[in-house]
Amino acid sequence: MHIAYPVVLSSLLFCTGLYGVLARRNAILVLMSVELMLNAVNLNLVAFDVWLTKAAEETLHSGQALTLFTITIAAAEIGIGLAIVLAVHRNRGTADIDKLRDTAEGHETDGPGGPDEATVTTEPAAGQTEKAEATA
Amino acid sequence: MTTTTLAVLVPLLPFLGAAVGLLLGRTAPGFVRPLAVLPTLTAFALAVLVAVRQGGDRPVNAATELTPTGSIPIELALHIDGFAALVAVLVGLVATCVQIYSTGYLRDDPRYPSYAALVSLFTSAMLLVVYSGDLMVLLVGWEIMGICSYFLVGHYWETPEARAASLKAFLVTKLGDVPFLIGLFALAADAGSFRITRILSTVADGGLDHPTLVALLLLSGVAGKSAQFPLHTWLPDAMAGPTPVSALIHAATMVAAGVYFVARLLPVFAASSAALVVLAVMAAVTMAGSALAALAQDDIKRVLAYSTIGQLGYMTGALAVGDRGAAVFHLLSHGAFKALLFLAAGVIIHAAGTNSLAAMSRMSNLRARVPDAYWTMTIALLALAAIPPFSGFFSKESVLGAAEHAATGHAEPIPGAAGWTVLVAGLLTALLTAAYATRLWLLAFCGKGAEAPDHGRQPRTMTLVLWVLAVPSLAFGALAYGTLPDWFDGDDLAPTLTTSVLGTGAALAGGLLTYTAWRYTSAMAVRVPLGAVAAHPEGDAATVEAEAIASHAPAYGGTASAPDPADPARLLLGPLHRHAAVGFHLDAVYSALFVRPVQAGASLVRFLDREVVDTYVHGAGALPRLLGAAVRRAQTGNVQTYVSALLAGTVVLVVAVLVVATGA
């Protein structure tokens, strides 16, 4: 089989995954898209391993070994990722990535609950530091 | 014990008392009073013993090298001649009286322990100056006195007057001390030693290369310490300190240190006739100006302060005509009666609840409230005005006699001009001195109006020392003028007929003039009510005084004068009164010459620091802050945006790498 088929397939998979990561709102779908990307990489690893061993005298099949590692790590990652999503959903009642903007700078009000409270509590502190600077 | 051991103990005991007092002041308040009084008293007794043993014979000299300096060694040296022995007795007596008086005067003062320790330290420094035979060791005592004076003037540091006065006293005396130090170095470089004996023998051999320069440099330090024109302005303001401090430091001892120093090194000054003429002019200006200023003051202590400046002028005048015997004679008698005047003034301020003469002249019966202060102050004022047979008469006549001696050309190589200057100024000042002494007495004790407030009996410790000091004020001069020449250089100190008649005549004329003027003006006092008294009459004397000082400016419109038309000085001085009350605007001149340029320089430096240097610092901070604000806008919190940016960056990088790799 020519190397082009698996490479084209894996790049399609990767692009699908990339689109999912960038465009989906649901955190679970985003995680699934990440899996797609990982699997695209796995596909590449296996394909190139086979392609390269044709020419080599001896080989360790490092591409395939690396794929096993990737699968293991992906399994662990998805476990932790799903646990986080579950926890966020329990806490906030949503798993919408657009509404999880706690790390934003400044005073943009991006959603109900947490972010608002966070800005409210940080605002006086910021005022105090500004005052301290003025008097110093 | 040998005389040397005794003499070492004299400055050492008050020093140890001060050190222990400062250490134990808080933990053992019961020991503070004995620790203040006893070492000083013992030092006084030892000083008397040293004086008896020395007896005006050959000077006691002892020295041990303190530190090898590589060039001129510094030695711990004693040099006790008749001058040193007697001045030490005076210092011991006044210090003991002041310590005893202070136990009553500051009896409720929370800062009494540190105060008493500082007074002890001051006493020990003065005794060190008196006994020291090495100029560097003398300088140590000289500077310790300066810093003690700073702390003690600022004792009532709650009042702005005291804070300003202590700073002013420190800065003005230091202004003189810098040239003084350079003068000491120049003198030691010429003589090859800091020892007074060796310096004097060098001078006697004519080995001094720059006598005028050295003498003028030393004179500036003396003028600062002894409050001579033009560095006298700190002394009247220093009256913001407690009265015992004024008595000890600013009348009897510290200000006498300058005069004493010149007396010790008189041959150095006499080697330069230019220095003597400068000294004579300085003395004359000081005497006459301060007497005029004293006549116009309203604060009783400022009158006495200006009078101190004037009497110190007499002493420097005597030194200018080369008679250090007369100078130290006047120093001794003045020390006794001026300490008495200040201590009595403290009692009066406590009893009257005010330090303003204008307010006292509107109180009747003040003399009955404080009979001890009344009688002793009368004695001391008569001594100040040089009325025979009080001690001031003999010492002042010895000064005038020496001036007349020099003026008529009998005291080569003293220039006759110096003699005439001192003589004329001395006679004029004798008249003015009697005038302000009379004014003070009349205003304080012959007031008419409401009864003086009753503040209860004065503490016995305060009235007792008045009488102790009254004895030398009364009798010291008459008893001593015959025997003192044996202690000093042997010059005759007896009053001569011409100067006695002239001086006493001037004094009587001044007194009578003031009395006449007072008779004329005192009727007006009833019509112009004036006066403010302390709010806490039941407090101790120090509290009353601090309140009186603080309230003088708001109540009377100035620290120096009061708008009182019933003041005889207004009639006597006429249009001059306004200028005399502010010390002939010397403070204004200084503030124009020094204070304002320094303040302008300081505000320039402040401007450069705040506006120029800080701009760079702020700029260095503001640029990253701006950049940060710009970058912060990208931080939306949406992870997908970040990933998109990451992807875009990667794509750009890949394209760039491809473009470079293909060699386009």
Describe the 3D structure.
The complex is a heterodimer of chains A (about 140) and B (about 675). With about 140 residues, chain A is mainly α. Chain A is elongated and about 60 Å long. Chain A has two domains: about 100 residues, Helix Hairpins; about 35 residues. Chain A is built from four helices and no strands. The C terminus of chain A is likely disordered. Chain B has 28 helices and four strands. In chain B, strand 1 and strand 2 form a beta hairpin. In chain B, helix 10 runs antiparallel to helix 15. Chain B has about 675 residues and is an all-alpha fold. Chain B has two domains: about 270 residues, no CATH class; about 300 residues, no CATH class. Chain B has a two-stranded antiparallel ribbon with strand order 1-2. Chains A and B meet through helix 1 of A and helix 28 of B.
Helix content of chain B: over 70%
Shape of chain A: elongated
| Structural domains of chain A: how many | 2
| Structural domain count of chain B | 2
Q: How many whole angstroms does the radius of gyration of chain B measure? A: 31 Å
- In total, the number of strands of chain B is 4
Low-pLDDT segments of chain B: none
Widest sheet: strand ordering of chain B: 1-2
Give the class of chain A from helix and strand content and strand pairing.
Answer: mainly alpha
Quote the distance from N terminus to C terminus of chain B. Answer: 108 Å
Main sheet attributes: strand count, strand direction, barrel closure of chain A:
none
Question: Strand content of the residues of chain A, in percent?
Answer: under 5%
Quaternary structure annotation:
heterodimer
